[in-house]
Design goal:
heterodimer; A: mainly beta; five-stranded antiparallel sheet; 0% helix; 59% strand; B: mainly beta; seven-stranded mixed sheet
Chain lengths: 113, 115
């Protein structure tokens, strides 16, 4: 089945530092999504990418859809304590019968004030 | 616009029982998907419903079932609960099932504990 490899698994950084995480796959996806999940809550959509090569920003967050359609990265600039949480990438293949998301394993981000 | 709502937020059941979880999608959204999240397996796709029809199904046993109503609200049912069914069950809604710019928005989840 489809697999998404997300790295790193965890990051411990100081407030103000920049963060980068990425996802790679052996399969081609036609949509990449990045979500953030806080404990006990559902994932919250951060950025959606729909075209290969697309670079999209949302405030301090920037994400790119890889040219090969098999990878994506997320950057967070000037991290702040509220950035703490688990970040997930998700890929979607458009299927004639609908769609499903395949998720990475998540990146646990800790920001030290 | 209200987000995806799920009820109940927490459930405790014993092995062998059955459980029904409910999901109300964002107003106007017609597709509802369900996911199971566990520490060991991460987020796994269960199934997707669109216009009251199951459009897609993940690799879960037949004990897991669902349905969608004409108002797009969805329920999922797990029969003969096992300890391994303990998980956070997430519902996600989208406007279309698989449109080119379709995006899934998640609810807060139902935390199911099986004792």
């Amino acid at each position: 089945g489809q697999q998404l490899n997300q790295s790193p698994q965890s990051m411990f950084i100081q407030e103000g530092e920049d963060v980068s995480m990425n996802c790679t796959s052996s399969s081609i996806f036609n949509t990449w999504l990045w979500y953030k999940q806080d404990p006990g809550e559902g994932p919250v959509l951060l950025i959606a990418l729909y075209k290969a090569g697309e670079l999209t920003s949302n405030g301090r967050l920037t994400a790119q859809f890889g040219i090969t359609r098999k990878d994506s990265f997320l950057n967070i600039s000037a991290s702040i304590p509220s950035d703490v949480g688990i970040y997930f990438c998700a890929g979607r293949i458009r299927e004639t019968s609908g769609s499903r998301l395949t998720f990475g394993e998540g990146t646990q981000l800790t920001v030290n004030p | 616009k209200a987000g995806v709502t799920q009820t109940p937020r927490y459930l405790i059941k014993t092995r062998g029982q059955q459980v029904t979880l409910s999901c109300s999608p964002i107003s106007g959204h017609r597709s509802v998907s369900w996911y199971q999240q566990t520490p060991g397996q991460g987020l796994q796709f269960l199934f997707e419903y669109f216009s009251e029809t199951q459009r897609n199904k993940g690799n879960f046993p037949g004990r897991f079932s669902g349905r969608q109503f004409s108002n797009s609200r969805s329920e999922m049912n797990v029969s003969t609960l096992e300890l391994g069914d303990s998980a956070l069950y997430l519902c996600a809604s989208s406007y279309l099932a698989g449109g080119s710019t379709d995006t899934q928005y998640f609810g807060p989840g139902t935390r199911l504990t099986v004792l």
